[in-house]
């Protein structure tokens, strides 16, 4: 039973993280797409790879934190 408050806190944090990711997806990515239109194809691919690595890194850190808590 002592785990319930911790689980509730984790769930609330994950909901906050989820809403932040949604905000990033809705606000930043269209802005980035409009700003990267002037880049050539190679630069766009590099930018997308870097963004993908950054998002993957953030998600992996969140996963490691959640694993450590359980």
From TrEMBL:
Membrane-traversing stretches: 45-65
Keywords per UniProt: Membrane, Transmembrane, Transmembrane helix
Protein known as: Tetrahydromethanopterin S-methyltransferase
């Amino acid at each position: 039973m002592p785990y319930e408050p911790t689980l509730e806190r984790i769930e609330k944090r994950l909901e906050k993280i989820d809403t932040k990711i949604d905000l990033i997806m809705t606000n930043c990515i269209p802005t980035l797409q409009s700003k990267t239109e002037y880049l050539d194809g190679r630069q766009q691919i590099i930018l997308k790879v870097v963004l993908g690595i950054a998002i993957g890194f953030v998600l992996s850190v969140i996963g490691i934190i959640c694993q450590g808590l359980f």
